[in-house]
Amino acid sequence: MRSYHVTTLNEFIIKRQADFVYAKGELSRLLYSIGVAAKIVNKKVNKAGLVDILGEAGNVNIQGEDQKKLDVFADEQFIGALESCGEVCGIATEENNEIVTFDHDLSEGAKYIVCMDPLDGSSNIDVNVSVGTIFSIYRRVTPRGRNPELQDFLQKGSKQIAAGYVIYGSSTMMVYSTGKGVNGFTLDPSIGEFCLSHPDIKTPDFGTIYSINEGNYFDFPDGVKKFIKFCQVKDPTNSRPYTSRYIGSLVSDFHRNLLKGGIYLYPQTAKAPEGKLRLLYECNPIAFLAEQAGGKASNGKTRVLEIQPDSLHQRIPFYTGSKNLVEKVEELL
Ligand code: AHG
Ligand code: MN
Ligand code: MN
Predict the structure, then answer these.
(1) How many domains does the chain have?
(2) Cα–Cα dist 249/120, whole Å
(3) I need a labelling partner for 170 at 20 to 30 A (CA). Which of 20, 48, 253, 263 fits?
(4) CA–CA gap between residue 276 and residue 298 (Å, rounded)
């Protein structure tokens, strides 16, 4: 391959299809459609600061519809894209209490289901901070040719076929894995393509960044309080004190730590006794990526990917990132 050739997301997806012996292109089409919807959401997110100027926010538009919140817009875009790609029979998202099933002819034989946080960190949009989309793909367990059921969605994270996120940041990226490493693609807005920019991402085994909302300190379990102190104690032979960084946008915090080495923590608190983050569409996909990049993800006791989900919007305490840090917090807990 000539060195000036860029690999686009779509070329890469098709190349990688050969890794799966019986692959017939269904997963490739599914990933492709997520990429397309991500570009549409990206355009909207980029314009978020303009809505006031353009007189749209909170207003009623020409069709008489209320201006939609970006979470709802993103939810509709991804559901629409996945429904029309024909490879998905149902989807669970943060914005829908129940599973959404696709029961038209196109999706009749579809074997995949998707769990998704269409817009993560959305409270940050008003202040121009990066937000994201998180997705997780499973093969259905009930027979094909009829509507998927709840049990198709309540699978352990270790059963994920693929997972990834899109980060709408200073540049927009899609990072995903099909279980054979993690690859990152940066959107080149001039050609409208995601281009391979971060092949085979590996997170450092030894991380030095910790990311946690320390405002909740007094509610944290003792082990987490000890871990924070451990990070702050001076020990130059061990690179301590470590660096604290917290955006409050899971995708952005995770993305930084993935590349630089660190840990993201969201323990249980008084306000969120089970933890805040949702197992199906926040923790499992992020945990899958962390492990694929050589890191770890835990609820403090067990590997996140081994947890048997019992409901769609279940929350868990979540600790993910570099091995040294996740192992340390587990030890202290
Ligand atoms: P969402 O916008 O999808 O509801 O998720 C927000 C999440 C996550 O992105 C972030 O890391 C966390 O909430 C921040 O919580 P705190 O504000 O409690 O720190
Ligand atoms: Mn979220
Ligand atoms: Mn969300």
Answers:
(1) 2
(2) 7
(3) 263
(4) 14
Q: Is 268 in the pocket of ligand 1 (CB under 6 A)?
A: no
Of the listed ranges 113-127, 241-255, 317-331, the one predicted with least confidence: 113-127
Residue 79 sits at φ, ψ, to 5 deg, of: -60, -45
What DSSP letter does each residue of 33-48 carry, written as one string? HHHHHHHHHHHHHHTG
Determine the distance separating the centroid of ligand 3 and the alpha carbon of 15, expressed in angstroms.
Answer: 31
Which residue lies with its CA nearest to atom 6 of ligand 1? 121
Show the tokens assigned to 61. Answer: 């538009």
**Whole-angstrom distance, CA of residue 112 vs CA of residue 137:** 7
Ligand 2 centroid to residue 106 C-alpha, Å: 30
Ligand nearest to the CA of 71: 3
pTM (2 d.p.): 0.95
* Same domain for 168 and 221: no
Task: For residue 253, give its domain range.
Answer: 209-332
Strand 193-198 versus strand 182-188 pairing type: antiparallel
> Does any ligand 1 atom lie closer than 6 A to the CB of residue 213?
yes
Clarify whether residues 143 and 214 are in a common domain: no
